[in-house]
Design a protein that fits this description.
35 strands, 28 helices, alpha+beta, single chain, membrane, six-stranded mixed beta sheet
Length: 1007
């Protein structure tokens, strides 16, 4: 009795704990979404998610429990005597002999009238294998659905773009048998479950309840697809096989596949579980015989079988549309075999399945106990299974090998054309403006001076060496870290410098105010964030973690092309100042051009812990000499937790039991959650895919203090993140390595680094997917025109999107089906030497004027070489400025002449005797040379190649820029500065001396 009470109390406490955990989670999420201003988004998601779970679980449980309860009532009782069964065995044997041999005498009919309508008697040698196979099938199905549910349980809670799981089709069973050799434990576990079901068939009821809960949870994770299904926007573009609009495949077909996933589990479990209940009733295994299905049992199974066959018909109907994702042919999508053999087979099997289903359901509704064609029905089902194998596998393979492969190009040509066209549509490659570019090699010193802005923005500092230098010179304290450095462009008031490492300056074009000349400069900006993991272990206390170390401070900004004393970067913005100016700037012109304000960073890329602000404990602001300066957060971010009940709510939610016990909280104390900008925006819009590289922008987003989306204070630091709408359901579009076959850069996200406010802006209103989400969440998205112009001037074409498009373009620039089939013009991304290792060239930003474009602009560029060759064949440029944002230009080089590619230029650099000797000398005695990014820069009608050379110590690395290599046509020079290299290249007839090489003894010492 005592143990029973203990068990009941344990169950009670466990239930209360789960209830409190659920309530705290919902309550905390409501407070957080209310803080960021998107409570409506959260509530709609939760209601949809909860409704799906309740509806699917409820229907599944009612259906399965009702059928299993009915089966319990109709099954044979355990009191069925063995004499009765043996008598029936004689009768059934007699009936079987009559059926097999019509000459067999019917006069010895000894069947008992009570069991005259029983069907399919089974002896032990047939009964045991049948029930074992059914049990294994049930166990395999439970494993399949259980693996799906477990994978969803362990996935990110904010992940909404889950792919449709594999439905429980014959391929799954076949795949399982192929994997048995490598997963013996898997087979053993399945056999164990199957045997347990044979010994304890009453487990079927309990499993049905758990199965219903699991199905409800699985389908609820696809709430995003259900919302899209009911409010989708059409693509106004159809695919060629069925003529359906693309929206059917992107929005509707996934929901139908989810319906199949659910109903297959529902109907198949119901049919198999009821069949096992009947087959195992009456102690049939121990008695050694099953007396056959009674009329009531036959009628019950007929109804379940009819529902199952309707679902089989639905499965074949969906398989027709899934042919547009076939990988059978030489191109992605439905091939000749799929259209001429597989599609008719699916149509036939679908029609036959519907016919069988209606027959079984008709039999259920209008049951006739004395039906003479019952055996023929079994034969019909057997013939149907044979047709499934023949038409589903043998026939298509025969067509592929006998008809298609001997004439593959002719047969597949129209389908290749479909793949090319729809893949180019899905990745927006159709919008690329392709042009012929024939470098003339006529670049002169006058052209260099004419393109002075391009020359002054050639990037000599790569992200990696700059970050290494920042960490040595600008981290200031161990708990600060620069996680990233980002390329951007700023319009700066021109400043007079004593040394410019580019071409000789020319007069700047005056702005509206002639006294304030401005120019665009390409810069590297890096945020100085707080990394709590680097705080000494002895100081990692609860108060330090959550109350004192709360934020990073400031940023550095460096021009990409300027070298300071000793080969180190020059900084426009650096350090932490004791004055009210907060950060140190290189000149008054820079301070006027770059808004700094108060540069505290409470939300960033590595701020992964939650903090409490407005407490009795002051927050560490920044170090000042041997002391520290402290501050109290006064931003708009955070949730007030001054009251005791809110403390307990968040204590349960965060599993932090010191929160309600501390005495350092005040009535206005706030908790700041989800301070990592990626996690923050992912929690709000989990249905979007986000770029891997948020970048920091400093700008006055609310100069006139009239924009309600941005607080009216002196915070000017914002994170900008690109967001994508993706799909893997675009017909005929090649999925490639990313697993997606449609993508658009549809959204720009801005996160305030101090207040934590989040704003979503639609950057591509023509995208049907973002239009669908905008109709679902009308208050979530704003038009791009609503973004402050000071921020809009910093949007850039995202590298992740550009990488995916450029990867597809390597193959899908070939629009002729025969050229595509032969793969005779495939491209590749060339390699470059970085450090001492070869790696693929990464896209890089430039400020330059494209050929035939009369002005400089901020572009993203990537070169191509032919497959298995190293000469330059083309380069792709993405524009980022103003009205030209998002436009892609493809410059194709002539094939009849050699245009040096990056690998060829690298080879020329490394085989130059003077350059290679100098590099070899530096790669000794505790130092090593880093060959930086090789940039291919278009200037006028020519190409200029520039590569920086860095020197770093093996210990305590502090990379310095020691040389700049410039290559043009057949000339290569290496000098101390870009200016000297350009002069050596373009004044060779005046100064025919070799490249200017700084003597080894004058090299900047490492470290």
């Amino acid at each position: 009795m005592f143990w029973k009470w203990c068990f009941r109390l344990l169950i009670l406490f466990l239930g209360l704990w789960l209830l409190l955990d659920l309530l705290s989670r919902i309550g905390a999420e409501i407070f957080w979404f209310q803080e960021v201003g998107y409570l409506q988004v959260f509530l709609l998601r939760v209601v949809t998610w909860g409704s799906l779970w309740v509806v699917v679980t409820g229907i599944t449980a009612v259906y399965l429990l009702a059928n299993l309860t009915l089966a319990q009532r109709l099954k044979y009782p355990r009191s069925l005597q063995i004499q009765q069964i043996k008598g029936e065995e004689v009768g059934f044997s007699h009936e079987l002999k009559n059926f097999l041999s019509p000459q067999y005498s019917r006069r010895d009919d000894v069947r008992a009238p009570r069991y005259s309508q029983h069907f399919l008697t089974l002896k032990l040698r047939w009964l045991f294998p049948l029930v074992l196979v059914l049990s294994l099938l049930l166990a395999l199905m439970l494993f399949h659905y259980g693996e799906i549910a477990i994978s969803y349980w362990h996935s990110s809670v904010s992940k909404a773009n889950l792919p449709i799981p594999e439905r429980f089709r014959p391929e799954i069973i076949w795949q399982f048998f192929k994997e048995i050799g490598s997963h013996i434990w898997y087979l053993g576990l399945l056999v164990g479950i199957a045997i347990a079901l044979l010994i304890y068939p009453q487990l079927l009821l309990a499993i049905a309840v758990l199965f219903g809960i699991g199905l409800g949870f699985t389908l609820s994770q696809h709430w995003a697809k259900v919302l899209q299904y009911f409010q989708h926007v059409t693509f106004n573009n159809s695919e060629p096989l069925f003529g359906e609009d693309i929206s059917f495949y992107v929005f509707s077909l996934p929901v139908w596949e989810l319906l199949e996933l659910w109903l297959m589990g529902l109907f198949l479990y119901g049919f198999v579980a009821v069949s096992l209940t009947y087959l195992l009733s009456g102690d049939s295994l121990s008695q050694g015989i099953f007396p056959g299905f009674s009329p009531q049992q036959q009628r019950h199974l007929s109804g379940l079988g009819g529902c199952l066959m309707l679902l089989v018909a639905l499965s074949y109907w969906l398989s027709r549309y899934e042919l547009v994702y076939s990988t059978r042919g030489v191109s992605y999508g439905a091939s000749y075999t799929d259209v001429t053999a597989q599609l008719p087979a699916y149509n036939l099997l679908c029609i036959l399945a519907v016919a069988i289903a209606f027959y079984l359901l008709w039999q259920t509704l209008f049951w006739r106990p004395k039906f003479q064609y019952r055996q023929q029905v079994l034969y019909g089902l057997g013939i149907y299974l044979i047709l499934v194998v023949v038409t589903g596998s043998i026939l298509p393979n025969a067509v592929q090998y006998l008809i298609v492969e001997p004439n593959e190009l002719q047969r597949e040509q129209p389908y290749i054309q479909r793949t090319i066209a729809l893949t180019r549509q899905a990745f927006d490659l159709e919008a690329i403006d392709a042009r012929i570019f024939n470098p003339q090699g006529t670049l002169t010193e006058a052209d260099i001076q004419k393109n002075d802005l391009t020359i002054r923005n050639i990037r000599l500092w790569d992200e990696r060496p700059l970050l290494e230098t920042n960490r040595q010179l600008q981290q200031i304290r161990p708990y600060y870290r620069f996680p990233d450095a980002d390329i951007d462009r700023y319009t700066l008031a021109s400043e007079i410098t004593g040394r410019r490492p580019a071409a000789p300056p020319k007069l700047a074009v005056p702005d509206r105010e002639p006294t304030n000349a401005k120019e665009r400069r390409q810069v590297l900006i890096a945020a100085r964030e707080l990394d709590y993991s680097t705080v000494p272990q002895q100081a990692q206390t609860w108060i330090n973690r959550h109350l004192i170390y709360t934020h990073g401070y400031g940023f550095t900004m460096s021009p990409v092309n300027t070298v300071g004393p000793g080969g180190l970067p020059k900084y426009f913005v650096k350090d932490i100042s004791d004055s009210s100016s907060a950060l140190t700037t290189s000149s008054e012109a820079i301070r006027q051009s770059i808004p700094i304000g108060q540069p505290r960073i409470y939300y960033g890329e590595i701020t992964n812990n939650y903090v409490m602000t407005g407490t009795l404990i002051k927050e560490l602001d920044y170090p000042s000499g041997s002391d520290n300066v402290y501050n109290t957060y006064d931003g708009q971010g955070g949730i007030t937790i001054g009251s005791l009940w809110r403390r307990w709510l968040f204590a349960i939610y965060l599993k932090d039991w010191q929160m309600p016990l501390t005495r350092d909280f005040l009535p206005d104390t706030k908790i700041l959650l989800r301070r990592n900008v990626k996690q923050r925006i992912q929690a709000i819009a989990p249905f979007l895919q986000f770029d891997s590289d948020p970048y920091l922008v400093t700008a006055n987003a609310n100069p006139d203090k009239t924009n309600p989306d941005f607080p009216n204070d002196r915070n000017y630091l914002y994170w900008m993140i690109d967001a994508y709408t993706t799909s893997d359901r675009y017909p005929y579009s090649d999925t490639g390595n990313e697993g997606i076959n449609y993508i658009r850069n549809s959204v720009k996200v801005v996160v305030d680094a101090y207040h934590g406010t989040v704003n979503f802006y639609i950057a591509d209103s023509s995208d049907p997917i973002i239009a669908t989400w905008s109709s679902i969440f009308p208050k979530l998205f704003k038009p791009l025109s609503a973004m402050p112009i000071s921020l809009r001037s910093h949007i850039r074409y995202p590298v992740d999107f550009f990488n995916i498009q450029s990867e597809r373009l390597m193959t899908y620039h070939m629009t002729d089906p025969q050229v595509f089939y032969n793969r005779e013009d495939e491209w590749q991304i060339p390699n470059e030497i970085y450090g001492s290792q070869a790696r693929p060239v990464e896209p890089y930003y430039l400020i330059t004027n494209l050929p035939s474009v009369p002005f400089e602009e901020f572009i993203l560029l990537l070169p191509y070489t032919p497959k298995q060759r190293t000469n330059l064949i083309a380069w792709l440029a993405a524009r980022s400025d103003s009205v030209n944002y998002g436009k892609l230009l493809l410059y194709i080089f002539p094939k009849e002449r050699l245009i040096y590619g990056p690998e060829q230029i690298e080879a020329l650099i490394n085989q130059d005797p003077v350059i290679s000797q100098q590099i070899s000398l530096w790669n000794r005695q505790g130092s090593r040379v880093i060959q930086g990014n090789l940039l291919v820069i278009p200037i006028e009608q020519s190409l200029l190649y520039v590569e920086p050379i860095y020197l770093e110590a093996s210990q305590n690395s502090l990379p310095t820029l020691v040389r700049v290599v410039v290559a043009y046509e057949n000339r290569i020079v290496m000098t101390q500065t870009l200016e000297q290299s350009l002069q050596a290249i373009f004044k060779s007839e005046v100064t025919p001396a070799p490249a200017i090489i700084r003597p080894v003894e004058q090299a900047v010492p490492p470290g």
